[in-house]
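call fold(seq) -> tokens
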Amino acid sequence: MTKRELVIEVAERLGYTQNEVASVVQATLDSIADTLAEGNRLEIRNFGVFEIKVRDARVGRNPRTGDAVPISEKRVAVFKPGKALKELVESATLTPEKASKIVPFPAPQAPKF
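ret:
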């Protein structure tokens, strides 16, 4: 689902205009991003937790040459789903309509000479 599809669905459910819903959705996403940028944690009960994890500096390897390459410390945003969201996803069944939208990777083909 894209942000646009989310806006359309929420607008239909609540009876608001798509412009009003788009503003609320964008403000919500901006607030989440701002909170994470400040290094804070955001918890939405029964949904999940957004937080920042710090990955330590380490030494990696250049796959071509095998040389050691220093990799600096970095901060990454992570999401940990809440109990209610986990249970909802776990109990959901894959309907034929949803299954038809899943596009499997194409099988590799032999090279043509």
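The chain has a mean pLDDT of 87.
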